[in-house]
Automatic annotation (TrEMBL):
InterPro entries: Cyt_c-like_dom, Cyt_c-like_dom_sf, Cyt_C_IC, Cytochrome_c-type_DH. Residues 23-101 form the Cytochrome c domain. Gene3D superfamilies: Cytochrome c-like domain. This is Cytochrome C. Residues 1-24 form the signal peptide. It comes from the Bacteria. Keywords: Electron transport, Heme, Iron, Metal-binding, Respiratory chain, Signal, Transport. Its cofactor is heme c.
Length: 132
């Protein structure tokens, strides 16, 4: 009887493994939940008058480098994430938001995010050299 149990266990583990990978969160979803959902909500609808909606947002669905710059540098009370997220993490996060909640944003590449970070650093150095 024990000999017949092993094939059944093997088949079960294959099915369970396939089910768990099917249930895995899309790349960036966990980062969104950990870093963004407190303000922009799990639904991406934001909080009217306090935190803008990401669902249906022209910024979210527009130029990926612009969106990356906003997340890297912050904007209008939004914190900057340039010191908290790597380019790979930010790429996954942005692509999640750009396709979640019915958004139709084009994918952002790792190169786009790296370029936005480089522009951000160059802009910070230039501002640091200006007289007050």
């Amino acid at each position: 009887m024990l000999r017949h149990a092993f094939p059944a266990l093997a088949a079960f583990s294959l099915v369970a493994g396939a089910a768990s990978s099917a249930l895995a969160a899309p790349p960036g979803q966990t980062l969104y939940a950990d870093n963004c959902s407190a303000c922009h909500q799990v639904t991406g609808k934001g909080v009217k008058g306090a935190f803008p909606a990401l669902a249906g947002s022209p910024l979210v669905q527009g130029d990926g480098k612009t969106m990356a710059g906003v997340v890297l540098n912050g904007r209008a009370g939004m914190p900057a994430f340039k010191d908290d997220l790597s380019d790979a993490e930010l790429t996954g996060l942005l692509n999640y938001v750009r396709t979640a909640w019915g958004n139709k944003g084009k994918p952002v590449s790792f190169a786009d995010v790296s370029s936005a970070r480089a522009q951000s650093k160059a802009g910070a150095k230039a501002r640091g050299l200006q007289a007050h």
